[in-house]
TrEMBL record:
Keywords: Chaperone. This is Molecular chaperone TorD family protein. Pfam families: Nitrate_red_del. The lineage of its organism: Bacteria, Bacillati, Actinomycetota, Coriobacteriia, Eggerthellales. InterPro entries: DMSO/NO3_reduct_chaperone, TorD-like_sf, TorD/DmsD_chaperones. It comes from the Bacteria. The keyword Translocase does not apply. The keyword Chaperone applies.
């Protein structure tokens, strides 16, 4: 368990966790996907290869295939958009809700008590939610971004507490569901990267979930 970290370690965690948050929270535009394809070599370098090697390799291969095909980036962007709609908007069908409250309320509903603590911590960290969807802030993507921000600031104790009280409770089952239900290799790779990053940061911090939810209640089949 770390109580402090070097600036290089802090920056590495911040970069990786913030990328995970971006990948889960935002729908990549055509330009975003074109940039990912063009800059795909980053997924063959640290911190991705050190912390999430399998998922990073898979994602680099997905982007490489798109880069080699005519109109590959545009085709990938369309596939990602459709998959994002299914995984993040059609959650009644996909069973992959990204909201923590769904996993921590008896009725499996949004806007549960955990939302208010996450909202306060986001505000305390100076993070603003930039969304026109008026969705609750206990979104897995935002929670990864908050963890990344805390790590980047060297706020190890705060990061440990947040991971233990929030991300580690629900995100492992959520990310496994995301991997199983994803229709694209892109989101399967994203889920793998995020899951590995969360497990590794928990090890680094000595963080453990404060509550064990009923995984069988939420786990999905392919």
């Amino acid at each position: 368990m770390q109580s402090t970290m070097t600036s290089e370690e802090a920056q590495a965690w911040e970069a990786l966790l913030n990328w995970c948050g971006w990948a889960l929270y935002h729908t990549p535009s055509a330009d975003d996907v074109a940039n990912l394809v063009a800059e795909r070599a980053v997924f063959a370098e640290p911190p991705f290869t050190e912390i999430a090697p399998a998922g990073s390799r898979e994602l680099e291969q997905v982007l490489a295939r798109a880069g080699e095909a005519e109109d590959g980036a545009a085709d990938l962007a369309r596939a990602i958009h459709l998959d994002h709609t299914y995984l993040f908007r059609m959650t009644g069908q996909s069973k992959t809700s990204p909201y923590e409250s769904v996993y921590r309320t008896d009725e499996a509903i949004m806007f549960g008590d955990t939302l208010f603590d996450v909202r306060t911590r986001l505000a305390d960290a100076g993070l603003r939610v930039d969304s026109d969807l008026n969705e609750p802030e206990d979104h897995a993507g935002l929670e990864f971004m908050l963890a990344g921000t805390l790590m980047g600031r060297g706020a190890v104790d705060e990061a440990r507490a947040f991971a233990s009280e929030h991300l580690l409770v629900f995100a492992p089952v959520y990310l496994e569901n995301l991997r199983r239900r994803a229709q694209t290799d892109y989101y399967r790779a994203v889920a793998a990267i995020c899951a590995d990053a969360l497990a590794r940061v928990a090890d680094a911090l000595g963080a453990q979930a404060v509550e064990q939810i009923d995984v069988a209640r939420y786990a999905v089949e392919r």
